Amino acid sequence: MTKQLLLFAFTIISVFNLNAQELEKSLLWEISGNGLTESSYVYGTIHMTCDATLDEDVLKALDDTKLLVLEIDMDDPSMQMSMMKGIYMKEGKTIKDLVTEEEYLTISKFVKEQMGMPLDAMGNIKPFFITAMFYPKLLGCPVQSFEEELMKIAHEQEEEVLGLETVEEQLNVFDEIPYEDQATDLLRSAKDNLATDKASFQKLMELYDNEDIEGMILMMDEDKNLSTTKHKDKMLDNRNKNWISKISDHANKQPTFFGVGAAHLAGDNGIIKLLREAGYTVKASN
Fold first, then answer.
1. How do the domains of the chain map onto residue ranges?
2. Which residues contact 225 (CB under 8 A, 6 or more apart)?
């Protein structure tokens, strides 16, 4: 559950944080040139879905590569323990420290109705992760994961699974963003009982199914007050920049399949543009 919780938390980024750049309708992109002898691929995932069936072009790219690299190494046996250490706020902070008494009662009622649990039992968990607990409810179906499907193929092909960053590095993002801002997002979800979240996620899924990266990008203008938008540099830009050298290292050693959240692909600080600036040819693969 903790592994899924981290993916759900980063689904928030996919829903609300995308930056503008003209790109073709594609989730799968081929990386070549700049000294590479064989192509690698980067694939934009969505971290929770009703149907994680992989298209034929994705399966072919997996077959043509020798290593799977995700945002984090989801095969790491220590991942669960690392996550449990990182989901709690630092310095003894609790939700009560971040909101008014009236706001706390609103959130508490929401959590009780949605989860059947008292907020006091999870009050020291980072607000983003409390919000993430409700995201499976946006689907209305059993949750499936593209990352799990990618790993299944990698295991069948007896290939290693690695990560572009550690669990600790991902979790640190949620310490860099003020807890107060995270609590504001949680309060909004509580006040309208996930109505805004459901509408945004439904729109995102339609765009994702159409591989419409440009359409997804336009969503960011709809909610500039959301903390993930205000702190996009921490959620996306800085991580993308840190990944480029790692993507290059892996691709130069062997043809590699990279699976990252679709929000990381586009934009001025997106992986596609950054790889092109680094000298690679990156083109839509379907």
1. 2-78+140-175+193-284
2. none
- Which amino acid appears at position 72 of this protein? I
> CA 283, CA 197: separation in Å to the nearest integer?
32
Answer yes or no: are the C-beta atoms of 252 and 203 closer than 8 Å: no
Residues 6+ apart with CB under 8 A from 222: 200
Q: Are 25 and 210 in contact (CB under 8 A)?
A: yes
pLDDT tens per residue, range 132-156: 998 888 888 899 999 999 999 999 9
User: Distance between CA atoms of 181 and 230, rounded to whole angstroms?
Assistant: 9
Per-residue model confidence (pLDDT) at position 3: 54
Secondary structure letter of residue 157 according to DSSP: T
Say how far apart CA 231 and CA 129 lie, in whole Å: 16
Q: Is 128 a residue whose pLDDT tops 50?
A: yes
CB-based contact 119:108 (threshold 8 Å) = yes
Cα of 231 vs its chain's centroid, Å:
14
Q: What is the mean pLDDT of residues 87-105?
A: 95
